[in-house]
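Human: For the file, kindly provide a plain-text protein record giving the amino acid sequence and the backbone structure tokens, at your earliest convenience.
Assistant:
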Amino acid sequence: MTTILLTLLLSMAGATASAHDIEVTTDGVTIYYVWTNGNTELQVSYRGDSYDAYSNEYSGSVVIPASVTYGGETYRVTSIGNSAFEYCAGLTSITIPNSVTSIGIYAFYFCYGLTSITIPNSVTTIGEWVFVGCYGLTSIVVEGGNPVYDSRNGCNALIETASNTLIAGCQNTIIPNTVTSIGASAFYGCIGLTSVTIPNSVTSIARNAFGNCTGLASITIPNSVTSIAKRAFSHCGGLTSIIVEGGNPVYDSRENCNAIIETTSNTLVAGCQNTTIPNTVTSIGADAFNYCTSLTNITIPNSVTSIGADAFGGCSLTSIIIPNSVTSIGADAFNNCRALKSVTIGNSVTSIGERAFCLCVVLADVYCYAKSVPTATSDAFSSSSYNTTATLHVPAASIELYRAAEPWKNFSTIEALPVEKLVAALVPSNGNRLRLLDSNGEIVCDAMISAMVSIDKGEDYVVRAYNYESAKATNLFVNGVDCTTELVANTVDGYEVEDLTLENVQENLLIEAQYTPKRYNVSTLSTEGGMTTMYYVNLSDGDTYYANIINTDNSYSFIKYGTDVRFVFTPYEGYELGFVFSLWNRSIGDGEGDEVVPLGDGSYEFTIPASSFLEGHADIVVYYKKKGGGVDVNGDGEFNIADVTKLVNMLLKE
């Protein structure tokens, strides 16, 4: 025989404060209620004044009655209140009557002993997080005829019929191909879920949809999904594979990276323990690796400029290098990384968010290369070992700045970063000037021929190419990369220069400059006995001939680049042309060959075309000999290069 005991809880001295109004014991099972709807209906509640006032007040099999009789009156049980069975781990079975129309938020939160649930067709309202953490669930059934919810096709899930949103699933769920959205926390805490197929009908995955599904090993995002909320896969420490199907218009998993990347923004929104971050990613999104507990190491490429809030919170990283490209580190970015011992912060970081390195309890070394102290909240390193055993390593010139700034000044030890040395090789062409300057504008190396110099790793440098009247820097290569388009024109001490800034140099440098001549350098050595006249045409602006009279001595002329140069040799009376030697083509002309051409009036001509100039200069040697004389200058009986050499030496000594 069933006995029902109704007890009005008394509010008297010494009695425990209580939020529930009555408690009912049926066959040894006590259910707690509160009055609703003007004390005309009852709602199932927890015991006491809060859900955690008592532990496991419900256990075993609980059957909720459709009605309760009290004081001669019968009251319908119409709802299950917020958190009514929360954390009742011993609850193994629940029967919900057809009188219940609503189930409140957190109603069965972390009732992980519960193996099955049947939602009657009377229930038209179900709050959020109702079955979160019920990882023992293997069966979810909605009775037929429910106007709001269904479990179509025996899917073992709770689906909102009108919106086709799956709002609660379990380890045996098969997502129907009519579902268009996976709701917030739908599978949260479902640790028994090892695999799931998301059909092509799904377009959105809400926040925490698969959160804390630690048994989930792989996930494939179909090309129909165009919206994935933050933390959709947080706390999924078992994930080893993430694939986005080709053709997805919003997301990709480029280069087999095992991650979800928002294509247009190049933001990595979800990763796993096997993720390799592509060097096209510019941002690591909020919660991207949140509580990926199997992640022990990761390389952040220097394409990344920002790390979002909680991006690596709760991971098992032992060390992290934040590259110089990163400018901001979000709140909680590495919070609770309890294995993290070493952190390297690049020189471009300007801000660090709240609790970014909070609870990094074994943190031993922080290497911060920023010369300007990054702004950081006072709790950026809170509850970590930073103020007891950790050492902060900073640029030597900035130590005092760090010692005066929060929270940096609280590190137990602050010392200077070691300076690593690199080598820079400068290779200018054609004897033109190429300089390397440090960040203060001081000259580190001044090269007009190839030169090498020692430089400091991590410093900024400026490569300066000088543009003189004779030549202009047209190409600049750094370690084989053409940086010409990055050159910035400037004027220094009256000279035109082109500067290239190299920030945070991390490797040896080979700097090569190619110069285009702006003018010819023409030198002429001539003996007495004739007049040498030089003509040239300025091809760039169409000017006609200009004449430069070269007398019988050593002459040096500058001729604008892009011109043909024509020489006319006119012997004086009693003389004739002996020979012309040009270092332009290393050839000898004696007035009879192809290069030196007689003009018929006793004169000769010799032309150097603009296209044939050797590195923008030419050297001409002219020998006017007496008529009837020979060209054997050195007296060995032959005419050859030795005669030219002898003549040059004689003329230079004069």
In short: DSSP finds two helices and 53 strands in the chain.
